[in-house]
Amino acid sequence: MDERAWLAERFEEQRPRLRAIAYRMLGSLGEADDAVQEAWLRLRGADTREVENLGGWLTTIVARVCLNLLRSRRSRREQPLGVHLPDPVVSRAEGGDPEQEALLADSVGLALLVVLDALEPAERLAFVLHDVFAVPFGEIAAIVDRSPAAARQLASRARRRVQGAAPPPDADVARQREVVDAFFAATRDGDFEALIALLDPDVVLRSDGGAARPGATIVLRGAREVAARALTFARLSPFVRPALVNGAAGVVVAPHGRPFSVMGFTVREGRIVAIDSLSDPERLRQLDLAVLGE
After folding, report:
1. What is the pLDDT of residues 192-201, one digit of tens each?
2. Contact present, 121 and 70 (Cβ < 8 Å)
3. What is the DSSP string of 169-190?
4. Where, residue-wise, is CATH 3.10.450.50 in the chain?
5. For the domain with range 173-292, which CATH number is right: 3.30.200.20, 3.60.20.10, 1.20.120.910, 3.10.450.50?
6. 12, 58, 84, 161 — which has fewest CB within 10 A?
């Protein structure tokens, strides 16, 4: 096996981990793939004879590419004002997709990605690399051009914000599904009180309709407000298809087979604490919903 083929094989072994890092850093599936591809291009052009840890070297490259992209977003203000949800990862309700499971190893719900989007780029990098992928602070420090102690502080600040704003969901996905199914049953039946019982008093609904549906781009807080909003879409309840959204119970709403929205739910202690809904037609077209089958 020549050196190029050997490098390609080693890179493919690292690709799932690199893509998982990039997705958590960027919240965009397309940009994550671009960052991984950039790492491959740099690997092809590099002299790797003195690289002792190829996985660590590639992680550093992907992290630096992602950090530059995040900084560019901030400087250009590319993100639209208001709600902008990360790209959801949609898979069959029963699971079993190895590629999706590799991407989502270690919980990475939409609510968590929303919080990560609010962090400073260096904070996000330090948190993702250290808390999720166990990269030492010494290596993170070199990427962000700070001391190991400063890198530790970046991760600590990010951790406090994540713990306060994105608590982990219940681990039992089957139980999550029961709560989500009950939510749509109550919506279909117009049962306002049943909805209130299923929603945490401080539930947050984030809806991203993109440029095509500006009226759908909102943030609502509180059980009564979210329940009232849910009832306005009761007509869509028959078109709800169960799915896993970022590894948690969610749905794809597809009237007449055409995706209208992807909804992710965060269920904690048996109640819904967050609903994240993407209904931007342009972004929905970019998602791979074929995994759901007919």
Report:
1. 999 999 999 9
2. yes
3. PPS-HHHHHHHHHHHHHHHHHT
4. 173-292
5. 3.10.450.50
6. 12
pLDDT higher than 90, residue 100: no
For the stretch 69-85, pLDDT in tens is 999 987 765 555 567 89
Alpha helices in the chain (DSSP H): 3-26, 29-45, 54-76, 98-104, 110-117, 121-127, 137-144, 148-165, 173-189, 192-198, 223-231, 281-286
* Residues, the chain: 294
Strand partners, 265: 275
Q: Which residues of the chain does CATH 1.20.140 include?
A: 3-79+109-165
Distance, in Å, from the CA atom of 164 to the CA atom of 275, rounded to the nearest integer, reads 17
Helix axes 3-26, 29-45, angle to 10 degrees: 150
Q: What is the pTM of this model?
A: 0.87
Contact between 255 and 184 (Cβ < 8 Å) = no
